[in-house]
Design goal:
Elements: E1 3-7, H1 11-22, E2 27-31, H2 34-43, E3 48-52, H3 60-69, E4 76-81, H4 85-93, E5 98-102, H5 106-139, H6 147-160, E6 166-169, H7 176-186, E7 194-198, H8 207-212, E8 213-214, E9 226-227, H9 229-232, E10 237-241, H10 248-260, E11 262-264, E12 271-273, E13 277-282, H11 286-292, H12 297-303, E14 306-308, H13 320-330, E15 338-339, H14 341-348, H15 355-370, E16 375-376, H16 407-421, H17 426-432, H18 437-447
Helix pairs in contact: 2-3, 6-7, 13-15, 16-17, 16-18, 17-18
Length: 448
């Protein structure tokens, strides 16, 4: 139910307006002048204010000025006599939504109230959206104090001011997308869209339609014309994550789009101009994939104009504690926790194969395990080195039990354990098991 504040020094007028509004289901409160109204607005939330202009102590104009000065999100409508219409018009220039002249008709007031309340709802939704955006921006903050990261961020800021293609290489969990977003924010395109695309997550058969769009009827299920990511990101930045997993067939068309700055929708003939800044990222060794023929050399040269490589967390140990404290503050349940010296030593002594992503997960898990103690200790973080809690085996060999084993079940279990230890970093998990990433993926498919 909408709550409306009626402000007028004439008691009869206040009551008349209140009865009229309450009959339509609105909740009302009353104030005899601007000073009383301002005090009420400071202690309660109102969806709109209807106020007379001429009142003792504080008039309607001054009330409006105070509401705006205090950034109170409440639309104001004036009631005025014909003789003071000019004052009402001046007030609208200062931020009033509308004005109603005396004597007034009930239908006119109700129509104005309905329109103003719609505006009030839009203002409320806008505030909520801004809060969400601020929260999202906070989550995208890059935390660092170490010299390697200072040098990287300096380079990222410099290249951000240009329009050059950037290739960000590095292990999973090092913050490649955060770095790409920083580059976008530093660019002249920052007011436009940042569009992330995970190339590894797109089916090989849908890569072209995802990137370039498609015409109606281009294939079964293409019920309408659809723009691709290049068109959607036009004017802004297109972030192609896991570019190393892009199918070879799609690489040639991507190269042409980057060279010509034009795309052609699947099933269409028209070439559509696009203006995008492309930032790519990969956790693969692209030069090796170029040598093996899995990645086009000409595309590699096109996207590798300005290479950046975020260092793994183990090479930026000075950032571990600031990052851990940041993740604690971001957790509602972790804001009152502190890291003990033993916890800090344990974190600095760990290799972090899953990098910053693994650290974030570890802090969240540690807060749960610490319970109501208010402290995170080395014991709380013992899950980082589960082997240290177990006695070492008598030898490095594996003894086959008399009853036998299920080799498939053992492999699946080891794969899952490796993923847990590495914070779901498949490259690091494969390394733990002495496998290539490709063989590890096959093992995971069998496990599923």
């Amino acid at each position: 139910m909408s709550h409306i504040l009626v402000v007028d020094d004439e008691e009869r007028m206040r009551h008349l307006l209140s009865i009229m509004l309450e009959r339509k289901g609105y909740q009302t409160s009353q104030a005899g002048d601007g000073a009383e109204a301002l005090e009420m607005i400071g202690s309660a939330a109102f969806d709109m204010v209807i106020t007379d202009i001429k009142m003792p102590r504080m008039d309607g104009i001054t009330l409006l000025e105070n509401i705006r000065a205090q950034h109170i999100p409440c639309p104001v409508v004036f009631i005025t006599a014909f003789a003071t219409v000019d004052s009402a018009v001046d007030a609208m220039r200062q931020g009033a939504v509308d004005y109603i002249t005396k004597p007034f008709e009930e239908s006119r007031i109700l129509l104005t109230v309905e329109r103003t309340l719609k505006l009030s709802r839009i203002m409320s939704e806008n505030r909520a959206l801004k809060q969400q955006l601020r929260k999202a921006e906070g989550q995208n903050e890059i935390i660092y104090v170490s010299r390697p990261m200072q040098g990287l961020m300096d380079l990222a800021t410099r290249v951000g001011r240009s329009d050059s293609a950037v290739l960000i290489s590095g292990e999973s969990g090092t913050g490649k997308e955060l770095l790409a977003r920083h580059i976008h924010q530093m660019s002249s395109r920052c007011e436009k869209r940042f569009v992330p695309v995970n190339c590894a997550a797109i089916s090989p058969h849908l890569v072209e339609s995802e990137l370039f769009g498609y015409e109606k009827g281009a294939f079964t299920g293409a019920a309408r014309q659809t723009e691709g990511k290049f068109e959607y990101a036009s004017g802004g930045t297109l972030f192609l994550d896991e570019i190393g997993d892009l199918p070879v067939e799609a690489q040639a068309k991507l190269l042409r789009a980057l060279q010509e700055k034009r795309v052609q929708r699947v099933g269409g003939n028209e070439e559509i101009p696009v203006d995008v800044r492309v930032v790519c990222a990969t956790n693969r060794q692209l030069p090796e994939r170029v040598e093996s023929g899995a990645f086009r050399q000409d595309l590699f040269f096109r996207i590798n104009v300005f290479p950046l490589q975020p260092p793994p967390l183990r090479e930026r140990a000075d950032d571990i504690v600031p990052l851990a404290e940041y993740f604690l503050k971001r957790l509602e349940s972790g804001q009152n926790f502190r890291l003990t010296k033993s916890a800090i030593d344990a974190m600095k002594g760990y290799e972090w194969p899953g990098n910053v992503r693994e650290l974030a997960n570890a802090i969240e898990r540690a807060v749960i395990l610490a319970g109501d103690t208010g402290e995170i200790t080395a014991a709380t973080l013992s899950f980082l080195n589960p082997a240290s809690a177990c006695p070492p085996p008598e030898n490095d060999g594996f003894r086959l039990p008399q009853r036998g084993i299920s080799l498939e079940a053992l492999e699946n279990d080891l794969a899952r354990q490796a993923l847990d230890m590495c914070g779901n970093n498949q490259t690091a998990a494969a390394k733990l098991l002495g496998l290539t990433r490709a063989k590890f993926r096959v093992l995971m498919k069998q496990a599923n």
